[in-house]
């Protein structure tokens, strides 16, 4: 182990004090997407989580997940490699294989998905503090690069604080806090709790480097989170995945930065794939999924393109992608932008969560709203507002009728 391994604040400063951070996402924060995100304002990126046992023991898995350009000093830094696992030795073996091509390694303690429950890692280690401490301490003692950790929170503030202190004591140099419980996933996602993140920020040592994760829909949410929680940086997963422009602007006033046209992003992403794809199997494998997400608002209006994207097999060449998908999308969006006079972003009223929903033209990248019982978040808010308005109207009618009855009673001779 090198004697000059950086501590948290030293590492943060060396990396340029990153405040806009691409989250580790299973199969979706691979090399090509990291490069695209950096082009749109991201200042620190994480890899998809690497399964420690598989990475350490399977040549095929390692080749599929980690190519020669991953962590390249010219195109893929700064970079944190995230690892999931429950065996200190496997996690260490994986970290040793990648430490020369990253700035830190991160222990995944936040994944709430069924795969993490089955494999017994991520947030399903939250009750095993001794094991977590041992894994982090092993990495801290035996690696040349720093170790960091990404966590979810407990319902109890004090327990979450004690948990965070334990992780820092074990040797973690950055602490990323996803402000949701382990149970908050899928249809139960709900809002992330920024108050508990601020509570940790206020009660942990002042020099602790902290990142917040959760509730990033629009560029201004990043600024608002930094201000309200006091953290050093804000991490985005789905917000970035559906709209890389979330990192590109300070607010939504510049629509070309905040909500770039889908054809522009698609072309940029495609050109990156052309450059790195042959040496990045993970990037090429994930291409179809990324195309669907980039085009999500567009495809519901152009179902012919959706059918074409769906039909593209893993054997489709890049030339086929260009001819069948990229160019047709460019043609349609160019025509829309030359004919439409409503290429504007309309901001809604202030919501209880501190921001406002925006109506964005469907040919521009925009947030994804997770559906609950078939209804997305923005529509739930709209429905709630309509229900409130209807109740207010009913109360007003009832009050008017009551007043009329009282007047009639007074005016009627006895």
Describe it.
This protein has an 8-stranded parallel barrel with strand order 1-2-4-5-6-7-8-9, surrounded by 7 helices. A two-stranded antiparallel ribbon has the order 10-11. Helix content is 49%, strand content 11%. The termini are far apart. It is built from 19 helices and 11 strands. α5 runs parallel beside α7 and α13 (262-276) runs antiparallel to α18 (318-339). It has 414 residues and is an alpha/beta fold. Among the domains are: 8-258, Aldolase class I (TIM Barrel), CATH 3.20.20.70; 378-414. The chain has helices at 8-14, 31-39, 52-57, 59-65, 88-98, 114-119, 129-142, 157-170, 194-203, 219-229, 238-242, 255-258, 262-276, 281-285, 287-294, 296-299, 303-311, 318-339, 377-411; strands at residues 20-22, 44-46, 50-51, 79-84, 104-109, 147-152, 172-178, 209-213, 233-236, 346-347, 358-359.
Spatial order of the strands in the main sheet? 1-2-4-5-6-7-8-9
Q: Span from first to last CA?
A: 100 Å
Roughly how many Å is the radius of gyration? 24 Å
Computed structural class? alpha/beta
Secondary structure: elements and pairs:
Blueprint: H1 8-14, E1 20-22, H2 31-39, E2 44-46, E3 50-51, H3 52-57, H4 59-65, E4 79-84, H5 88-98, E5 104-109, H6 114-119, H7 129-142, E6 147-152, H8 157-170, E7 172-178, H9 194-203, E8 209-213, H10 219-229, E9 233-236, H11 238-242, H12 255-258, H13 262-276, H14 281-285, H15 287-294, H16 296-299, H17 303-311, H18 318-339, E10 346-347, E11 358-359, H19 377-411
Helix pairs in contact: 2-13, 5-7, 7-8, 8-9, 13-18
